[in-house]
Each structure stands twice: as structure tokens, then as C-alpha cells.
């Protein structure tokens, strides 16, 4: 008995993608403070492109042994505020497993002065820091770390400066 051919294509529902703006506005469930992520900042010079970058890297505190993972981040820029929304985690196509955290780096070319960096989880929790980028004196300062006023907000991210990763053009 042959299968009957459909007269019209069946409609498949689309999966709902969570957008960065909805994560920023969401109210998280009440949970205790637990550090899960680290937001690390440093200067990096690319000698091939001859460009000075400001790197903001977000990584997990937990380290993974079997696979290499990277964080899926979405960036929302609003004047002097950077919202880094953690959208999930995915496996890299790395054939050699090594013990490392899931990490993603965001490259910026034009951060000068004070910026408020907000790290946002999908459930709506936000951790923030005011960071001063000064390329002229070759320094980055974390002026203030804080948890914005929001119902059920909690601490989950540490902010740090990776001075050992600073790189600048060589004088020649």
C-alpha cells in the first residue's frame, strides 16, 4: 500500500530563540551566590594587522577535560555600556582534548575611557564592573565591581585584569 502524497507541506513550528534583550530584562529565580564565570580584560597587539586590541574574555570557572568548549556570547553596545550576554556553550572542533575552561574573547579597537561592562546570564542575573581603559598609559583599571539593583540578582562573575597577557607594538 503506497503512502499518500501530501497536498501541502506540513508546518513545522520554529524553535524559540532567546534574544539578548529578553535576557537583560528577565528576572532571575532566587539562587545563592556562586561564582561560575570570570571576565578577564587585557591589551593585545596583532603584528600581522598592526592593530592594538582591547580584549574582554569571558570564561567558565569550571574546567573541562574531555572536549574544548567555547561560550556563545551576544554583545549589546549602548553608548558607554557593554552588555555581554552568555547565550550558551558549544564544543570547538579541536581534536586534542586538554584541561581548560570554556572561553571566548571579544576584540575591540576603540575602547578609551570608562566603560560599564555587564555580564548577563540567560536567566537574567547581571554582574557589572566599571572599567577604565587607558591605552596612553598602557593600563586598565577596574574602578568598581557591583551587582545592579534587580530582584533576585546574584553574584556569579569575577572581573580581573590579565596583566601577563598585555602585548604592545615593539619599538623598532
Question: Topology, please?
Answer:
Blueprint: H1 20-25, E1 37-46, E2 51-64, E3 69-78, E4 81-91, E5 100-108, E6 113-120, E7 126-134, E8 139-146, E9 157-161
Parallel strand pairs: 1-9, 4-6
Antiparallel strand pairs: 1-2, 2-5, 3-4, 6-7, 7-8
Summarize, please.
The chain has 172 residues and is mainly beta.
Overview features:
172 residues; mainly beta; five-stranded mixed sheet; four-stranded mixed sheet; 1 helix; globular
Structure description:
This protein is mainly beta and 172 residues long. It has one domain. 3% of the residues lie in helices and 49% in strands. The chain contains one helix and nine strands. The chain has a five-stranded mixed beta sheet. Strands 5-2-1-9 form a four-stranded mixed beta sheet, with no helix packed on it. The longest helix is centred in the first third of the chain and has 6 residues. The relative contact order is 0.26.
Q: Number of helix segments?
A: 1
Overall outline: globular
What is the typical, i.e. mean, pLDDT? 88
Largest sheet: 5 strands, mixed
Amino acid at each position: 500500500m503506497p503512502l499518500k502524497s501530501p497536498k501541502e507541506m506540513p508546518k513545522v513550528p520554529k524553535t524559540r530563540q532567546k534574544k539578548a534583550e529578553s535576557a537583560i530584562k528577565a528576572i532571575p529565580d532566587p539562587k545563592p551566590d556562586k561564582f561560575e564565570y570570570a571576565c578577564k580584560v587585557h591589551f593585545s597587539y596583532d603584528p600581522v594587522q598592526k592593530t592594538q586590541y582591547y580584549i574582554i574574555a569571558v570564561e567558565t570557572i569550571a574546567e573541562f577535560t574531555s572536549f574544548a568548549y567555547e561560550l556563545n556570547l551576544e554583545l549589546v553596545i549602548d553608548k558607554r555600556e557593554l552588555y555581554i550576554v552568555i547565550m550558551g556553550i558549544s564544543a570547538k572542533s579541536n581534536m586534542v582534548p586538554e584541561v581548560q575552561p570554556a572561553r571566548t574573547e571579544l576584540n575591540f579597537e576603540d575602547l578609551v575611557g570608562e566603560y560599564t561592562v555587564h555580564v548577563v546570564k540567560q536567566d537574567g542575573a547581571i554582574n557589572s564592573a566599571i572599567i577604565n581603559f587607558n591605552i596612553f598609559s598602557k593600563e586598565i583599571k577596574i574602578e568598581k565591581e557591583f551587582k545592579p539593583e534587580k530582584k533576585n540578582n546574584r553574584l556569579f562573575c569575577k572581573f580581573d585584569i590579565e596583566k601577563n597577557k598585555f602585548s604592545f607594538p615593539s619599538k623598532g
